[in-house]
Structures are given as C-alpha cells and as structure tokens.
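quick one, two chains, predict together pls
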Amino acid sequence: MADVMEVGIEDLGLFTDLYQLTMAQSYFEHRKNRLATFSLFIRTYPPHRHFFVAAGLNTVLEYLQQVHFPSSALAYLRQTGRFSEAFLTYLATWQFRGEVWALPEGTVFFANEPILEVTAPIIDAQLVESFLVNAIHLQTLIATKAARCVQAAQGRRLMDFALRRTHGTDAAMKVARASYLAGFDSTSNVLAGQHYGIPIAGTMAHSYVTCFAEEIEAFRSFAHTFPQQTVLLIDTYDTITGAKRAAEVGQEMAQRGRRLLGVRLDSGDMTALSKTVRNILDTAGLPEVQIVASGGFDEYAIAQAVQEGARIDVFGVGTKMGVAADAPYYDMAYKLVKYDGRPIMKLSSGKVTLVEEKQVWRCTSDGHDVEDLIALRHERLDQPDLHPLLTCVMHDRRVLQPLPSLEASRAYHADQMVHLPDRYKTLHHGETYPVRLSAALESAQQQVEMAIREDTASVQ
Amino acid sequence: MADVMEVGIEDLGLFTDLYQLTMAQSYFEHRKNRLATFSLFIRTYPPHRHFFVAAGLNTVLEYLQQVHFPSSALAYLRQTGRFSEAFLTYLATWQFRGEVWALPEGTVFFANEPILEVTAPIIDAQLVESFLVNAIHLQTLIATKAARCVQAAQGRRLMDFALRRTHGTDAAMKVARASYLAGFDSTSNVLAGQHYGIPIAGTMAHSYVTCFAEEIEAFRSFAHTFPQQTVLLIDTYDTITGAKRAAEVGQEMAQRGRRLLGVRLDSGDMTALSKTVRNILDTAGLPEVQIVASGGFDEYAIAQAVQEGARIDVFGVGTKMGVAADAPYYDMAYKLVKYDGRPIMKLSSGKVTLVEEKQVWRCTSDGHDVEDLIALRHERLDQPDLHPLLTCVMHDRRVLQPLPSLEASRAYHADQMVHLPDRYKTLHHGETYPVRLSAALESAQQQVEMAIREDTASVQ
C-alpha cells in the first residue's frame, strides 16, 4: 500500500529533509541542543496579493503531538550508513518538546509577519521544519486564494470542485478545508464532508448525460432519483437546447410537487449563456431554479462575470483555486532568529530575517485595521487600539486551549475580512498594508546586522 | 488524527466527488450499469510544453484493488439523507471490476492521446474517476516538469528539494518519485527514500551555520560529524568569504585523509559566484570539491546557468519543479467514450472527445519517433515501424503482470527521451509532434458527431 497511502502517523518522523536529520546528529554529537526560536513567515507578496489568510495550524499541532521515529524508521536510517547508534538511540525516544506561538486560523496577515514561532531545543525545532512549512504553506496558499474568490463573488455562493486536479490526495482534503475556512459554502469532496463536517454538493457529469440515448431522458432519470436535489448539466450538446429540456423537466417536476434545484453551465460564454438560460427558465415559470456555473473559474473570472451582470447564483470553483494557479507557491521561510539567548540573523542577498521572539500587534481605528506593528514579544504595548495576534498554542507537548472549531474559525475569518479596508482587498493594484517594526525590534535588528557585517569584513 | 493523515485505505471510497455517488445511485436505481469505457487524456499543451511523461499508474492500480466502502463511510452517506438503503447495501460489497489499459510509467506521450482507458460497469468506472484523475494528473504534471529540468541540465546531476513547498504530504512523496522517474538523481525527502528506494541527499541549512558563533566553527563541526558526506552551505553571510572558509576546512579534512564533498550556493548570481568559488576551491588544491546550487531553479534557470558556463555540478531543484510553477495544472479529462456498445461523444464548446476504445501506435524511423497514430483498439496495424503503447494492465481486479520497478521505469523513460527528436524537447518554441487519427477512428468520429448534431438540431 506504499503508493496509495504514503504518509501515516508512523511515517511522520521520516517525512523531513535529510539535512534536518544530519544537522540533528551533528548538534547531538556536539551537545549543542540549547533553546532555539524559529520564525515562520512569507517574505514577499506574489503578484496581485496584498494580504494572506493563516491556515494549517490544526494540522501542525496534531503533527507535533504525534511525530516520532518508530523502529522501522530507525532501521531505514541505520542502513543509510549516515547515522551513529548513539543518535539513533536518541531518536528512538525523541518527542517534540517546545512552545508554539501562532496566528489563529483565519487571521489576515501580511508579508514578513510571523505566522508561527517555535521555541524548542534546536534539534526539536529543526526536525519539524519541513512538515510545518509544508502544512502551513499549502493551507495558507489556498485559504488566501479562496478568500479572493469570496471577495470577487460578492455574496454569490461558492462550491469547491477542485478535488481531481489538486496536487495529490492530501491537497484535495486541505483545499476543501481551507476554502471553506475562507468562506466557500460547500465542497464536492465527500471525504472532506465526512472528516470536517463541510456541506457537500454536486450536480451531474457529462458522462451521465451521454450514456442515455436522449438528453431529456438523462434529465428525467436523475430527477426521478433525486426529486429534491437535482441540478441538471445542460451543456453536453448545446446549452440553449439543454436549457429548454431542463425547463421541460422542471415543469414536470413542479406538476409532481417537486422542485428542480438548478441547472449547470460548464462551457462557452458564461455571462451571455446565463442571461439566456435565466430567461428560458423564467419564461417557463421556473424563477426559483438556480444557475450554477463551473469551468475555469478563479477570482478574476468570477469578478468579470459579476461585473458583466451574469445571472449566476453559484460558482463551482475548481482547478485554478485548488492549485492557486496564478501564484502556486509563496516565498515562505522558517528561520532561526534566536539561539541560546543570542539573537540570530542571516544576510544572504535579499533574505534578511527579523531577530528574536516576536509579537504582531494590529492597530484598529473606527472598526478598521490601520496598521500592524511587529515588536519583540516581551514588549508591553497595552494601548486600547492595539491587540496582539499571536497566541501561545502549545507548551511542552500540550495544546494549551481547545482549538476553535472550523465553523468558529470561518466566522472569525469573515470578521477579519470585514475589518480589512477595501483598498487592500482588490484583486489588482491593491495597496500595501503598512507594517512597522517597533523601535526595540528595529534597534535589535541594527545591532545584530552590524555585528555580522563587522565579522564578515574581518576575513575578507 | 483527522488532520495529519487524511486519506487512508478505509477512506478511499469517499475520496470522490459527490456527483460520482449520486450518479451511481441513479444508475443503480434505473438498472443502468452496462459496460462503459472512459478515456483519460490531456486536451491541450500548456505554454512551452510539447510532450508529456506518463506517471501515476502504480498508484492507480493499488487504489483500484483496494477501494471500498467500509461501514463508517456508509454511515456518513446515510446521514446525508441523499442515498437509499438499497444503494448503500450495494456499496457495502462493491469492488472495482474492470479492465484497464494504460501507458507504462515513463512513456512520452502527446495531447489527446489516451493515457489510460477503463472499461467497466459504468458505476465502477465512474466512482473511481476522481481518484484516477488526481493521481495521474499530479504525477504526470511533475514527471513532465522534471523531464524538462533533466533536458536543461545536460548531464549535470539533479536533487529534488521540493518537499516543504509541495502541495501537501502526498504531493511531496509523489514529486520525489515522479522526478526520480524522469531522471533526477536523488531526493531530500527521507520518507521517499524509505518508501521508493530513491537515493537521499542533503547539505546543511542556514540555521546550522547561524547557531554557531563563527561560520568556520559550524563548518568544522559538520565536517567532524560527517567526514565523508559534508556539503557546506557558504552563503549565510557572504558567499566569497564562505567559500574561503570552506576551502580552509576542505584542506584540514584532506590533511586528515578525509574529503570535503562539496559546497552549496543558495543566493545571488549563481553563474558568477560558481566561477569565483570554483577558482577559490581549485586554487586551494580542492578541484574534486563539487559545487551544488539551489534557490529558485527550474528548467529555464538551469538552462540559463548551463548556457552561461556556470561551474555548477549539481542542481538542487525545489519549489518551482515541485509545484510545476509555470504550468501547475493540465487540462486533463476522463471522458465516457462508449456505453453498452454505443460510441459516445460530447460536443461542448472546444471539448470534443475521441470515441470508442483506442490504441496509440508510435511510428519510428532510424531510431527516432516520427509520428503517432490513434486508432480503434481492435485495428490491426502490424507494420514493422509501428508499435502499440497502451497495454492491458488490469483485468477483473487482477494486475496482469508484475509492474516494472521504479528503476526499470526510469531507464525506460530515459530511452523514450533518446528516441524523441530534439525539436520536440526544446524548452521554448518546440514543434508540435504529429498525431494522426486512423481512417477507421476518423470515420467513427464523423458518424457520431453527425448523429448528435442532427439530434440537437431537431429540437431547436
């Protein structure tokens, strides 16, 4: 079963980059396992993005409580010939022991702000890096893309149809969850419905229509099986013809005291077709029958359809959301910012990090977000218009408070979006939200940078 | 553990789009479960692509042998209120029974050619669609991207560094496997090393360097732990300074009878830096120390570095390969092409399908691929310059022959690439490989299309 189900609980230890394990062995050998703080953040905005939506924390916390190295993992490591018996013995009982501060899922945040900070013995903090980045990167990527779709839809409903073209099975699940967190209404992914309690939705496929000799026969058959939940796909042969046949079936259902729920468009000029189809349905006395549209939608196509006055009630949003097609990765980094009490920075070209444990404070005015302040974590900034965003979620293997439910996180996210002014939410040409460093953090940065530059200069 | 490990064997049944299950119930209710053939193919080339590399078949075959609906899945379906007890009882003992023809993993193929065809009772063929597309889409997407990187590298070695930014855990595994299939040499993903037997590789992170007070102390410590396998990361503070320190450590190792394996560049102008660093290492008497480069590489950046004469021996290729950044999805479809003996086509705008069970024949001349011919499967085209590509891999739940090992598929793929003329392999402006339809398939297409158009016209 190696191929269908790759990553189980027993596999979490080895789900990491080799260098995490080799560095760990070197730290272990040199007895260099003091407390380290790592900060996870996104360096830059990809094109058209001006905010991000935090997601993936639930996954991370479950991982941190479970990750370990079973004997099968140790046997594999042993046979690579790279690891000492002393280190393998250490790994056999290793568990993550650390403190985690994080943005709650659904939080709106900005470039260079810590999404999550881990303080742990450096071996612990390092071994978990690869999984942490993987989980937070994917879910934040998708929640952000989905939030943009929600903005574009201006209240119209959204269904996640991405399952078949997400990158693998794990992504299919996380896409369903992250898009729901960001305000989607349902998913076609039945397993996500079971696992997360997300409402499931679906229509019918072209294959259903084509396996009947006549389109209308297919429509009638489906309506017979699902008298309350039928959405007919009308573009298999010709959309206008399909709409007329659907209207006929809708009228037949009405005569039986049933109701056709909707029709689906999946190709062609959606705006023009939706208007014509709306007219056909209305003329047939079926104004309550909804129009679902799918096929290549993302935030840009949704916004265009809305602007053109398309009569679309529900968008089925698949591939382009599910792979975040216009920005399929973020420049996300997990960087050492403190080791054994010493603030740490790297200076590689264009990749400066913010030192020390931090807190992000959001400044609001009249119910609107005004700016964020990244400060040293211990700074006390108790002004009434500032509130801290990072909370301590894990300490010494224990999750500190019950995590919010997905529904609660979804509501929290919706509230976050209300407070973010429109100029940061536009799909194109948005403004960059102001993020300042506190004077104390600024000063800490300068001191560390100066010390490194002096050190580097001395050997050149 | 719902969040860490989403999709286990028991979950495979529900890992599908809702409409597959609702259509299945409707087929079941109408006793309409005759043999259907579905064809999986890619409709169009994304920008810059002129060939694809088939991958994912192993995953699919394991899935088809395992997928079922355990009682927990049935309980969930029951509580949705959409499904009849009769249908749930049917699902309780349902297993996939069908015949699968497919391109072997590693096969080079082209737009509109079937990658895989399933012939099964329509309920069976339909329920498995979502997983099949998900698996073949991801692995083909990545194998193709990776094959392009291999072309660009012109013999230089390639390491998969994508794990942390692939879309989820399943993708991290499949990316390691698909890139190795396509000719990569190793992966940083330790679990992929264990599961697939792929060589694992890695260097060190900036955090390792920065947690020591001095860069050279970090280098010496790592070299002490790994006297045979040390690759030093030299760009944490300043790459040239780092290279000089690495050379010093390399000389110290040589004096102890050890050998520094390499240094890694991870930022800046890689071509220029690689030449300078090569010079520093050579001058220090370390010509055997290799230069590894990572950071934003994809086929385009690799090709540019090679063209500029970069002295890079090994490329670490991460995010852009692992998410196929310039083309993160394909227009892949799984379409009904025959039902109960009747050829099937849909005509939705721009989405014409090829009817009936098919075979793809490759025509070669002087050891080079010349053109492909898509024919009806039963056609006999036994010319010496033609050979069929699709093979029957599964019949009635049995995999018909032992699948080739990953190493064998990798060698087969390399051979496929040798036979594909260069003009189809260039990164930009490649030519479109000629794919013809056989006269019999062409004629079948025309007959079906004409019948549909007549039928549609009659109701307008």
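Residues 129-153 of chain B form the longest helix (25 residues).
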